[in-house]
Every structure is written in C-alpha cells, then in structure tokens.
Amino acid sequence: MQSYVIHLIRHGAVDETLKGRYIGSTDVDLSKTGRENLVLIRETAGYPTVQKVYSSPLQRCLQSCEIIFPGMDINNISNFSECDFGDWEGKSAQELAGNPLFGQWLQNSDKTPPPGGESGKAFASRVGRGFERLVEKMSAEGITEAGVVTHGGVIMTILAMYGLPQAPSYQWRMDNGYGFSVRVNPFLWMREKVVEVYDTCPAAPDRT
Questions:
Q1: Which H or E run includes 139?
Q2: How far is residue 168's CA from residue 173's CA, in Å, rounded to a whole number?
Q3: Considering the chain, what percentage of its residues have pLDDT values greater than 70?
Q4: Strand bridging mode 179-184 / 4-10
Q5: Which end of the chain, C or N, has fewer beta carbons within 10 A?
C-alpha cells in the first residue's frame, strides 16, 4: 500500500514576530533577514524535492514558498492560515499584561478566545479539517510527496493532533524555515488517524 510524505515547513521570519507581537491573521511580508535566511537554508541544508506545494494564503507563506520551492505552482489551503488573534493582532504580551481576559486566554485558550478572534479549540478544528482534506486530496491525485509552507502554530497543532510519537504542541516548536517530515501510512491513517513524524525538514545531517 502506497504511503505519502508531507514536509511541514514554517515560513521565514517577519519583523513583527521578532518584536514579540501577536501576528496571526494579519498579512505581513517576510523581513529582509527572513528572506536571506531561507536562501541560506536552501543553499546549505537543502529542501526536499516534492511533486506539489501547498501553502497558507498569507503573504509570508507564499513568499517563503517562492524561495523554498522556486518555480513551482502554489496551491493555497485557507484552513492552514495562522490563528486569528482578533483585537490582539499586532500587540505584545507586555501591552496586554493588565488585561484580565488575556490572563484567562493564556491559561485556557480553548475556552477563552481573544476579543473578535479565534479560540484554540476552533483553530485546532479548522486546521485538522484542512490536514485531513490534504491527505484525501493527495491520495485521490496520486501525489506521494508534498511540501506545505505554513505557520508554526499550524504545524504544532497538526503534529499534536496526528503525530507519532505523541507529544503536546509545545514540544513540536521549530525555527523559521524549518519543520518536520511526516509519513502517512494509509492503513494507520484509516484505522487511527495518525502519521509518523520521521525527520526534521530539512533533514537532519547524517551523524553516522
């Protein structure tokens, strides 16, 4: 039975995140440093060769795709957009520190969404639907290896929900331009809805 490989890669750096601001649905560009670092990773570590590229529709991901997978068509998946932080978009934790709702959100984002934003539970449900549809689409189209350029929160959520070994989302953190490669075994997927996380992306250097 044919298995499928998906490389989940976090977009390059943006200035706003480096300043400690919550940037979810806000559509910002890659920073100059973000672009340069992606080129450096591509030229030194190398990104995998894939049959198809999928992306969050936000510019920082689309621009990253052009560097990571130059010359390839980009297929947008709206469900892979970052979490919407509502009224807290563009604000830092310091600016929100005195807000009681912010404290409640930090303690339990599943139940407490930002004002005008998305709860952790709603975000995970949206991302999960997108990932399951992606697996179905790859199977239907015969795509055996694909690249997905999206946001850190999206990748951590996917791996916390479906990844083996099982681990909470915070253990799947990754730097900009990096991510994880997963293998979808159709038998395991149909039976348990799990995927094997088998390497980092770019792949870890061979230490043998």
A1: helix 120-141
A2: 10
A3: 98
A4: antiparallel
A5: C
Mean pLDDT throughout 113-140? Answer: 97
**Token digits of residue 57:** 């529709």
Q: Are 179 and 159 in contact (CB under 8 A)?
A: no
Phi/psi region, residue 69 (left: phi>0; alpha: psi -120 to 50; beta: rest), is beta
Residue-wise pLDDT tens digits, 6-52: 999 999 999 977 778 999 999 999 999 999 999 999 999 999 999 99
Q: What is the pLDDT of residue 106?
A: 92
- The tens digit of pLDDT for each residue in 42-76 reads 999 999 999 999 999 999 999 999 999 999 999 99
Which residues touch 87 (CB under 8 Å, ≥6 apart)?
Answer: 114, 115, 116, 117
Contact 53, 84 (CB under 8 A): no
Residue given tokens 């806000």 in the structure block = 26
Taking Cα atoms as reference points, which of 153, 201, 177 lies closest to residue 50?
201
Judge contact between 180 and 174, C-beta under 8 A.
yes
